[in-house]
From TrEMBL:
Segments forming domain NADH:flavin oxidoreductase/NADH oxidase N-terminal: 64-403
Protein name (record): NADH:flavin oxidoreductase/NADH oxidase N-terminal domain-containing protein
PANTHER family, sorted: NADPH DEHYDROGENASE C23G7.10C-RELATED (PTHR43303:SF4)
SUPFAM superfamilies: FMN-linked oxidoreductases
Cofactors named for this entry: FMN
Phosphoprotein found in the keyword field: no
UniProt-annotated stretches for the region Disordered: 1-22
Pfam families: Oxidored_FMN
CDD domains: OYE_YqiM_FMN (cd02932)
Compositionally biased residues, Low complexity: 1-18
Keyword Metal-binding in record: no
GO molecular function: FMN binding; NADP binding; NADPH dehydrogenase activity
InterPro entries: Aldolase_TIM, OxRdtase_FMN_N, YqjM-like
Length: 420
C-alpha cells in the first residue's frame, strides 16, 4: 500500500482546436487507504479442478482454462477481452468509467484485457470522445486502472491506434460543439473525395511523408507511456479500416511513393510502426498486432486486401518483432459484404496459424460460448480467443464458460461466497 496520496492534475491550455477539451481540469486524487487491495493468491478465472469429477474426461483440463505464456506474460486462461471503443473519454483521459468497465473483466476472471483503441495523436481519434496516449498527463489515470487489474490477478494491454480517414466522426452518446472536431485535418494514405469512407465521414487529405515519420514516432512515444503505466503488452491496431489498414489495402492506398503500390511498399508503414514500438516497449514484454484479414469485397473488380496478403505480412511482422497476431476482418470500405455467424472470422485465424508456424494467433468474431471457444483451441485454429460484445452482454462470460466445460474456476476472493 503506498505511503502517500497520488495526485494527478492537469490544467494545460489547449494548443489548438484538436486539444480544446484538454484545457479543462482533470483531477485524480487517491489516499493510501483507497489504494488498499484484498490479496488474490490465485488469479480469478484459474482452473481449480472439475465441477463434477464423475463425468467422462473430467480430469482433462480444457485448453480454454490452461495458462498461456508469451515472453514474460503469463495469463491464467486463454480468454482475452477484445478492445472495444467506449467513446467515454474527455481530452483523451481514461475515466472512472474505464476503471469500472475494465476492472469488472478482471474481477470476472478474464486472462487478458485489451483496453480500447487509444489514439497516439489527437487527430488520430475516431471521435473526440476517444482515449489517448499522446501526452504524459494521460499516464496516471491509466496506471490507476492497470494497478487495479493487476491487484485482481489479471493482465492488461492497450491498443495503440490512429483512425486515419475514419477520424473526427460524430461523438457517440453526446452532442459536442464543432470546435471539438478536426474535420479539415483528417488524413489517409490517399486523399480526395474518392477516398471518403462514406457520407458520415470526411474527405481525407493525403498524409505527407513528414507526417508519416511523425506518426511513426508517435506510436513509439505512446508505447513508452504504456510501459510507464505498467501495461503487460501493447497491441498495434492495423485492422477495421483505420490508418495502418488503410495503408495495407489497395482500396484505400493509391500512393505512388515508397508507401504505395506493391505489397512490400504498402506494408512499409506497418513495419516501421512495429520497429518503433518494439524499440520503445520493454523487450521482455510481448507485442500484439490486430489485423483485418480481408476487406470483405470479393465481389468487386478492383484489388482489395485479402487473406493471402495477410498471411504474407504475418511472416514479415513475426520477423519484425510481433509476438501475437490478432485476426479480425473488414472495416475498410462501406462496400464490404459480411455474413455474420458464430465464429465467422475463425477460419482467417486458422489460415494464419497454419501458414506461419511459430506465430501465436488470436481468433475473434462472434465467439459466444465456452464450448465454442474451447473447440477453436482444441482444433488448433488459434492459441487464444478474444471476446468483445459477449462480455458486454455478460460480464460473467468466463464463469459461464467454465460451467459449460465442467470446470471449477477461482472466484475473486470477495465473491467466493456467491459460488453455487
Amino acid at each position: 500500500m503506498p505511503s502517500s496520496a497520488i495526485d494527478a492534475t492537469t490544467t494545460a491550455p489547449a494548443a489548438n482546436n484538436n486539444d480544446a477539451r484538454e484545457s479543462k481540469v482533470i483531477t485524480w486524487t487517491q489516499n493510501p487507504q483507497e489504494r488498499y487491495y484484498i490479496d488474490q493468491p490465485v488469479a480469478p478465472g484459474s482452473y481449480l479442478g472439475p465441477l463434477n469429477a464423475s463425468l467422462p474426461n473430467a480430469d482433462k483440463i480444457p485448453l480454454l482454462f490452461q495458462p498461456y505464456t508469451v515472453k514474460d506474460l503469463t495469463i491464467s486462461n486463454r480468454i482475452v477481452v477484445a478492445p472495444m471503443c467506449m467513446f467515454s473519454s474527455l481530452g483523451g483521459f481514461f475515466t472512472d468509467f474505464h476503471l469500472v468497465h475494465l476492472g469488472s473483466f478482471a474481477m470476472g476472471g478474464a486472462g487478458l484485457i485489451l483496453a480500447e483503441a487509444t489514439a497516439v495523436v489527437p487527430e488520430g481519434r475516431i471521435s473526440p470522445s476517444d482515449t489517448g496516449l499522446w501526452r504524459d498527463e494521460h499516464i496516471p489515470g491509466l496506471k490507476r486502472i492497470v494497478d487495479y487489474v493487476h491487484a485482481q490477478g489479471s493482465k492488461i494491454g492497450i491498443q495503440l491506434a490512429h483512425a486515419g480517414r475514419k477520424a473526427s466522426v460524430k461523438a457517440y452518446y453526446t452532442e459536442l460543439p464543432e470546435s471539438e472536431y478536426w474535420n479539415d485535418n483528417v488524413v489517409g494514405p490517399s486523399g480526395g473525395l474518392d477516398f471518403k469512407w462514406d457520407d458520415r465521414h470526411h474527405i481525407p487529405r493525403e498524409i505527407s511523408l513528414e507526417e508519416i515519420k511523425e506518426t511513426i514516432k508517435a506510436f513509439g512515444a505512446a508505447a513508452v507511456r504504456a510501459a510507464k503505466a505498467g501495461m503487460d503488452t501493447v497491441e498495434i491496431h492495423a485492422a477495421h479500416g483505420y490508418l495502418i489498414h488503410q495503408f495495407l489495402s489497395p482500396i484505400s492506398n493509391h500512393r505512388t511513393d515508397q508507401y504505395g503500390g506493391s505489397l512490400e511498399n504498402r506494408a512499409r508503414f506497418l513495419l516501421e510502426v512495429i520497429e518503433e514500438v518494439r524499440a520503445n516497449f520493454p523487450a521482455d514484454k510481448p507485442i500484439f498486432l490486430r489485423v483485418s484479414a480481408t476487406d470483405h469485397v470479393e465481389h468487386l473488380d478492383e484489388p482489395s486486401w485479402e487473406i493471402e496478403q495477410t498471411v504474407q505480412i504475418a511472416k514479415w511482422v513475426k520477423e519484425a518483432g510481433v509476438d501475437v497476431f490478432h485476426v479480425s476482418a473488414g472495416g475498410n470500405t462501406a462496400k464490404q459484404v459480411i455474413q455474420y455467424a458464430p465464429c465467422y472470422q475463425v477460419p482467417f485465424a486458422e489460415r494464419v496459424k497454419k501458414g506461419v508456424p511459430g506465430l501465436d494467433v488470436v481468433a475473434v468474431g462472434v465467439i459466444t460460448s465456452g464450448k465454442g471457444a474451447n473447440e477453436v483451441l482444441e482444433q488448433e485454429k488459434a492459441d487464444l480467443v478474444a471476446v468483445g460484445r459477449g462480455f458486454l452482454r455478460n460480464k460473467e462470460f468466463v464463469l459461464d464458460a467454465a460451467v459449460e466445460l465442467n470446470v471449477k474456476v477461482k472466484f475473486q476472493q470477495q465473491y467466493e461466497r456467491g459460488r453455487l
